[in-house]
Amino acid sequence: MTTKNLSFPSCTLSDLDTLVQTSISTFVAAFEKDNNPKDFQDYIDNAFNKETLAAELANTDSLFHFAYDGDILVGYFKLNVGGAQTDVHDKNAMEIERIYVLGEHQGKQIGSQMLKQIISLAREHQKKYLWLGVWEHNPKAIRFYQRHGFQKFGEHPYLIGSDEQTDWLLRLEL
User: Fold this and answer.
1) Cα torsion for 38, 86, 121, 130, to the nearest 10°?
2) Residue 145 is a catalytic residue
3) Catalytic position from the list 43, 76, 100, 145
4) CATH number for the domain including 105?
5) Which among 3, 37, 39, 132 has a CA at the least distance from the CA of 77?
6) Is residue 1 one of the residues assigned to a domain?
7) Could you please report the per-residue DSSP string of 75-94?
């Protein structure tokens, strides 16, 4: 089943509670089983608390968008440009820091539609390429990005609590 009529409104501070809840639930569903419980909880407590997400929403170099199927929230994504980028600091680039589909809505091509919207936003911002970090032990996500034309160009460390993991850096030329 494919969802065809998605909308991608920008998140604002008035959406903070929904953003916190969605961020935690999607991250937990994706990664909790593969991580040390204490490190994982430390990460969740720091990355997805109201203060952190409010500051990220206030940063004009970060863009949060929800994905809605009608009036049903099905996912969200976070993009970074300029100084908000976590690794590659290139004015010609846009980072996809987060792209998540709620579990019950996976398998409906929502991630592909979100990626099309992200490409459109990157072009509107006159970026030459997209890049992202994806955990080396997440083959499903790696395959998804490779199917959409992303290619590996490096690696960087990523901390979940005190656990240093490795993210592959992937890039898509626009």
Assistant:
1) -110
2) yes
3) 145
4) 3.40.630.30
5) 132
6) no
7) EEEEEE-GGG-SS---TTEE
